[in-house]
Design goal:
seven-stranded mixed sheet, 3 domains, elongated, BirA Bifunctional Protein, domain 2, about 30% helix, binds biotin, five-stranded antiparallel sheet, Arc Repressor Mutant, subunit A
């Protein structure tokens, strides 16, 4: 959101204010105040005219300005109603040199999942991609996928949903898929140039409208009522920012919320299947499996709980 517009909104959040008081506080003309108020109304903010001033009466349910309003993390939001894929858009922004941008959409028409599968993304979900440029080697990038899984799981649990993480990057409720995460990156071996962490959050969507193979669920379905997508998105982005700022905190948080640890698993890896009990996670995101032949560390693969 434009800087002055943000400040107008912050000032109104503190309570009703007169046009002259706002103009004084923000050091702009009264005409400029009016122009920003009109622009905010167009973005969906309900700003009522009272006496000779304005009062904030409502915030839009979703969208870029809504999510930026009150967001306690240093991300710029790139909002879209409908877009083919937030990850594709974030990759384009990365090529243009952008950083700390979150591409956010209500609907995707060409959403992609892992292994280039289709990701169905109807209106009512939270489809977002975080573009960042961490100063780490490429080999460490998987930790950002784990951080995203922890961030969404925390937000879901705060919203009253018993979400758990399945290695490496699914968030489940009672075995049903709530969230999928797709991380893409570019760089040299010793340094990441950019990472795009795409999160597909089945928020206020009907699980019956999603493909059945993943046995999907949604926040609305689990709660029995819609989730506030604006607040939920803010909690996810704030948690993700906290975790990426303190990488050592990611693995302990992942362990706390994991459903995979302690379970018998079968992981299809490039070198064949690995079967046994999942006993731990190792930086930057490898699963340690206790097999009949001893412990095996698996860095990638499709994991089934047996
Ligand atoms: C999976 O296969 O489980 C990962 C799904 C990731 C989907 C998200 S939705 C937002 C972002 N944009 C995409 O096209 N994909 C990711």
């Amino acid at each position: 959101m434009q800087e002055t517009r943000h400040r107008v909104l912050d000032a109104l959040a503190a309570g009703p204010a007169s046009g002259p008081a706002l103009a004084d506080e923000l050091d702009i003309s009264r005409a400029a105040v009016w122009k920003h108020v009109e622009a905010l109304r167009e973005e969906g903010f309900e700003i009522e005219s009272v006496d000779d001033g304005y009062e904030l009466a409502g915030v839009p349910e979703f969208g870029g300005a809504a999510v930026e309003y009150g967001l306690d993390a240093p991300f710029e939001i790139d909002p879209h109603g409908s877009i083919p894929s937030t990850n594709a858009r974030a990759r384009d922004l990365a090529a243009d040199g952008a950083e700390d941008v979150v591409v956010l959409a209500d609907e995707q028409t060409g959403g992609r999942g892992r292994l280039d599968r289709e990701w169905t993304s109807p209106s009512g979900g939270i489809w977002l991609s975080v573009l960042c440029r961490p100063d780490v080697p490429m080999a460490h990038a998987p930790v950002f996928t784990l951080a995203a899984a922890v961030a969404v799981t925390r937000a879901a649990r705060e919203a009253g949903v018993d979400a758990r993480i399945k290695w490496p990057n699914d968030v489940l409720v009672d075995g049903r898929k709530l969230v999928g995460i797709l991380t893409e990156m570019e760089g040299e071996a010793d340094r990441v140039s950019w990472v795009v962490v795409g999160m597909g959050i089945n928020a206020n969507v009907d699980p019956d409208s999603l493909p059945t193979d993943a046995d999907p669920t949604s926040l609305r379905h689990e709660r029995g009522e819609p989730v506030d997508r604006r607040v939920f998105t803010q909690r996810v982005l704030e948690a993700f920012h906290d975790l990426r700022s303190d990488i050592d905190s990611v693995l302990p948080a992942w362990r706390e919320h994991a459903t995979t640890l302690g379970k018998r698993v079968r992981v299809e890896t490039a070198d064949g299947p690995v079967e046994g009990e999942a006993v731990d996670i190792r930086f930057p995101g490898a699963l340690v499996v206790d097999t009949d032949d001893g412990e095996v560390t698996v860095t990638a693969g499709d994991c089934d709980h047996l």
